[in-house]
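Reopening this one. Same input as before:
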Amino acid sequence: MLDPEFVLDAAARERLRDRFGPDAEPWCDGLAGLVAGYCRRWGLELDEALSGGTSRVFLGRQDGARPVVLKLTPDRSIAESEAIALRAWARTPHAVDLLESEPEAGALLLDRVTPGTKAAAWPGLPPLEDFAELAASTGDYGLVHGDLHLSNILDGGPVRGLVAIDPRPSCGDRTWDAIDIAMARVTSAGELDDRISRITALVPGLNAGRLRQWCQATAVISVVQRLFRYRHDGAVPDKFLLDLAASACERLKGRSLTNRDLAVGGARLAAQVRQRHRLPLYRSA
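Same output, byte for byte:
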């Protein structure tokens, strides 16, 4: 019998409540039974439990041998859209393999990427040539990954290269997937422009001007998150990020803005940017 604390500890439950609200409580209460059922059905032995922003994740083995990841979420739309994308990318080694799925129950069984180190943990950025190969292989299928930050890019070893996980897929502008790698650890406008030039030279079909505009627009989202959502963690935006976000607002509004204007209006602008340019594959009824 699975230890209830292993399946879902208090901190993980609170995180899911924070993300999904009180409606997540019944799902949390039934998670132990759900996990036990999938262990029996898919022949799983679980070794470790992790918490994602929208799911509970378990590392283990299938049939005593194959390393796997069991991913469960209370939001079936997340599981359904991820399953659609991973099936579309089944022929590329640069996306994690989907082994089993019951998206209507929010359940996915994934192959575990090895060695699996997150690019976010590397001392430097992944080689841009490797990122370009990943972006080209997934972009060919007409889908945008939607959340391709460094923690969702894993080391798949010398043969496989970089591997994308945890897509939030959409049909839209594939330039979106290059934003995070362009912005990662950048501290000046000159450094950003240089990074953008290098990326767009490597990835066919990407336009440098359009990527820079996306970086400006998403800088607004980052600033708003740090000023409001993460303010208790002391995540204060640096001057470069504030200036980049302000330049987006000035471009769209045609007037000079103070940081107060940015903070008050940024959330609405950020929502408009996402709604206009990212079309979800699945909409819940």
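So the earlier flakiness isn't reproducible anymore. For the record, The first helix runs from residue 4 to 7.
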